[in-house]
Structure formats: structure tokens, C-alpha cells
Amino acid sequence: IIIMIKNRSIRFVNFELAKLPVVFLWSKKWVFLCEKAYQIIDTAIESSVMTKVKGFGVHNGQVMDVADYVTPTQGASVFCIITKTITTENQVQGLCPESEKRWICNNDSDCNPQRNKPGDYGILTGRCVSFNNTNNTCEIKGWCPAEIDTVKITPMMEVENFTIFIKNSIRFPKFNYTKGNFLPSINQTYIKKCNFDKVNNTYCPIFRVRDVVHYANQDFRKLGGVIGIKISWMCDLDKSDEHCKPSYSFNRLDTMSQKNEVSPGYNFRFAKYYKMENGTDYRTLIKAYAIRFDVIVNGNAGKFNMIPTLINMVAAFTSVGVGTVLCDIILLNFLKGAEQYKAKKFEEVKCQVSIKQEKNQQSQQLFLIHIQPSNPLKLCGFVSVITVFHLTNEMNQIHEE
């Protein structure tokens, strides 16, 4: 029998939407195999990071080594490489004029309203004192002389050739699996001469600062911000150990700082304290401009497990009938020819029902029900069962009466 459906809408629904189970099974194949739905996943990665910077530079006529330009010095996952500094030496506790222009004054009345309030570098005394031969500024109590941070300082350009050594160890606690970024192929000879690059040395744990800044799409000469070094571990533990390897990526984390002229770059202050022979404390204040590096570790590991496998297999098998159900819903409710489709899908079969009342040998009253379809080629089917059920209820009522 060949059935031709001339209506395009019905033909589309019957033949195109009927393919949904196949499409669904293909999607399940994608989820099950490509997305590894048969695995149990551990995302609670535990990680430790140790860093070490090497290199020498020249700043303000002095040779700088790692102890001068790296802070903190413990080799943590977050560290700064100082590119330039503004130094205010021999500060002692006392009274001195403010150094910022906004505190310029003509007499004490200009400063008195701000008395005992914080200025830029100390507590205001309310007095107007001489700052230089040209200007007077409000007086402060604090570390004197006050810092002047408007001087132009040339950055230490050798920083771009410094190297960053990163040692990373990770553990997935669910599987008790540990790994480090020192792969078996890395030996003493290789580690002494390698520098990371994305083509030939993708697993070298030594990074040149210039390359890191370049991979983060930044200009070293204009840079003063926060760079992220991301180490990703995506491990399939159903495969051999050698397939679990780190991947490195780089980006600038403080991207909003580039769009804001109020506080561009990255800087901070720290001080070195000393004591005079007479016991007076003094210090050297250092305002440092730096590049901050954040080493960020993430990842997950997957391994075969029967529970997710069974769940996804059952979900795939039970979804086969979705396409047929969806076709019927559309055809029966949303198309113009829904009534015609209903007439063909649900055929009404008329049945003749006859009831004969008799008594058996024990004088018990019996009801004999005979159901005869009007068309001998048709069966009353489920409708007959329902009819018998209703007639049986009625006869029970008659019998009780």
C-alpha cells in the first residue's frame, strides 16, 4: 500500500518530525560519548603553586636583583615585579607642609576648617606654612618630609627579559589522583634552556615576562596592571597518565583599569625602617609601580562510573517515542485539517450489544452479554471492554434490586 500525502504541512509533520527520535539519539550520542556522560566528574581540584623570578636590571643607577624588585618574596601564586619606584628618604615623625597642590593656602583661615582631619600624607594642624619659595600649603603632622610622587621616573626595561618559574602540583581528591606540571619529558638539561612558547615548548614551566605580556595582548611599555597566568587541568582518567597535561593561557585581569584614567595601572607603597644613634626612628618610603601576576589553577577529572552510565542509557532509550507523540500533538491540535486527521486516526466502530438472562443449575441468575461489530472486519477492541465494564455495573445493580 502506497500512501501519498498531498498536504505539505501534514507531509512535513509526518516525515520530518518523525525523524526527531533519530536526531534525539544522535544528540544523546554526542552527550554520551563526546561529552563523556558515562563518567563521574571531580571539579574540586586541590592545588599548590610556587614561583621564582630571575633576572637583573638597572634602576636609578643601581643594579636590581630579585630581592629588590619582587614582592612578596615567599614565591606565592600572587606576586609583583616592580618596574619603577619613587623614593622619599629620611622621613621622621614631625610637622611639615603638605605636598599636594590642593592644599595651597594664603593664611591659617584656609586650613583651620580642616584641622585634625586627614590630609594626603598626615593629620592637618590648621596652620598655613611655607612649602617653597612660591607657595604655602597647609601643615600636617606625620612622616616628614611629605612624599612628592609627580616626578618622572624611567621604568626598568630589563624586566621584559626576566623569567618566571612556576611549579604547580594538583590533586583530585575524589580519585586520589595527583599530578604536577613537571612532565616526565622534562629533565635537567631541558629545563636549563627552555622558555615557554605556544608552538615548540608548550609544557615548559619557565615563562619570559615579555612573552606573558604579549600572549595577554598587552604592550609592555604601557603596562602596569594585573596579568593572569591560568593553568588548566582537563584530565580523562580512563586514559593513561601521560594524557593528563596542563595547558597555559594568559590574559589581563584588570581590563576595566585600561578604560579608567582616574587610577590607571598598579602601584603600592611600602617602607624600610631604621633607627638613628639617638634612638629616633626614620624610614625610606617607596612608591612602587609594578606588574602583578596571579597564577590561577582550575580543572576537572573524569572517570568511568556505572551510575551515570545507566542513567544516561535509560534516558536515551525512553526518549525514542518523543517524536511520534509530538507529531500527534501537532496534527490533532494545531493544523487546519485536524478534524480530518482525527477522523482517520480514531475510527468509530459501532457494536451491537445483546443481553440474555438465564439461570444455571444452581438456580443462580446469569447475564450473557454478546457484542457484535457492525462491520465483520472491525473489532470493537478497547471500546468493547469499556462497554462490558459499564454493562456489568448496571447488571450488578439490577441483581441487587
From TrEMBL:
<feature type="disulfide bond">
    <location>
        <begin position="235"/>
        <end position="244"/>
    </location>
</feature>
<feature type="binding site">
    <location>
        <begin position="267"/>
        <end position="269"/>
    </location>
    <ligand>
        <name>ATP</name>
    </ligand>
</feature>
<dbReference type="GO" id="GO:0004931">
    <property type="term" value="F:extracellularly ATP-gated monoatomic cation channel activity"/>
</dbReference>
<keyword id="KW-0675">Receptor</keyword>
<feature type="disulfide bond">
    <location>
        <begin position="96"/>
        <end position="144"/>
    </location>
</feature>
<dbReference type="GO" id="GO:0070588">
    <property type="term" value="P:calcium ion transmembrane transport"/>
</dbReference>
<keyword id="KW-1071">Ligand-gated ion channel</keyword>
<dbReference type="GO" id="GO:0033198">
    <property type="term" value="P:response to ATP"/>
</dbReference>
<comment type="function">
    <text>Receptor for ATP that acts as a ligand-gated ion channel.</text>
</comment>
<feature type="disulfide bond">
    <location>
        <begin position="105"/>
        <end position="128"/>
    </location>
</feature>
<feature type="binding site">
    <location>
        <position position="287"/>
    </location>
    <ligand>
        <name>ATP</name>
    </ligand>
</feature>
<dbReference type="InterPro" id="IPR001429">
    <property type="entry name" value="P2X_purnocptor"/>
</dbReference>
<keyword id="KW-0407">Ion channel</keyword>
<dbReference type="InterPro" id="IPR027309">
    <property type="entry name" value="P2X_extracellular_dom_sf"/>
</dbReference>
<keyword id="KW-1003">Cell membrane</keyword>
<feature type="binding site">
    <location>
        <begin position="52"/>
        <end position="54"/>
    </location>
    <ligand>
        <name>ATP</name>
    </ligand>
</feature>
<feature type="glycosylation site" description="N-linked (GlcNAc...) asparagine">
    <location>
        <position position="161"/>
    </location>
</feature>
<dbReference type="InterPro" id="IPR053792">
    <property type="entry name" value="P2X_RECEPTOR_CS"/>
</dbReference>
<dbReference type="Pfam" id="PF00864">
    <property type="entry name" value="P2X_receptor"/>
</dbReference>
<comment type="subunit">
    <text>Homotrimer. Forms heterotrimer with P2RX2. Heterotrimeric P2RX2/3 has a ligand dose-response profile that is distinct from either homotrimeric P2RX2 or P2RX3.</text>
</comment>
<dbReference type="GO" id="GO:0098794">
    <property type="term" value="C:postsynapse"/>
</dbReference>
<dbReference type="GO" id="GO:0001614">
    <property type="term" value="F:purinergic nucleotide receptor activity"/>
</dbReference>
<keyword id="KW-0813">Transport</keyword>
<dbReference type="InterPro" id="IPR059116">
    <property type="entry name" value="P2X_receptor"/>
</dbReference>
<feature type="binding site">
    <location>
        <position position="163"/>
    </location>
    <ligand>
        <name>ATP</name>
    </ligand>
</feature>
<keyword id="KW-1015">Disulfide bond</keyword>
<keyword id="KW-0406">Ion transport</keyword>
<comment type="similarity">
    <text>Belongs to the P2X receptor family.</text>
</comment>
<comment type="function">
    <text>Extracellular ATP-activated non-selective cation channel. Plays particularly important role in sensory neurons where its activation is critical for gustatory, nociceptive responses, visceral reflexes and sensory hypersensitization.</text>
</comment>
<keyword id="KW-0325">Glycoprotein</keyword>
<keyword id="KW-1133">Transmembrane helix</keyword>
<protein>
    <recommendedName>
        <fullName>P2X purinoceptor</fullName>
    </recommendedName>
</protein>
<feature type="disulfide bond">
    <location>
        <begin position="111"/>
        <end position="138"/>
    </location>
</feature>
<feature type="transmembrane region" description="Helical">
    <location>
        <begin position="310"/>
        <end position="335"/>
    </location>
</feature>
<dbReference type="GO" id="GO:0005524">
    <property type="term" value="F:ATP binding"/>
</dbReference>
<feature type="disulfide bond">
    <location>
        <begin position="194"/>
        <end position="204"/>
    </location>
</feature>
<keyword id="KW-0472">Membrane</keyword>
<keyword id="KW-0812">Transmembrane</keyword>
<dbReference type="GO" id="GO:0005886">
    <property type="term" value="C:plasma membrane"/>
</dbReference>
<keyword id="KW-0547">Nucleotide-binding</keyword>
<keyword id="KW-0067">ATP-binding</keyword>
<dbReference type="InterPro" id="IPR003046">
    <property type="entry name" value="P2X3_purnocptor"/>
</dbReference>
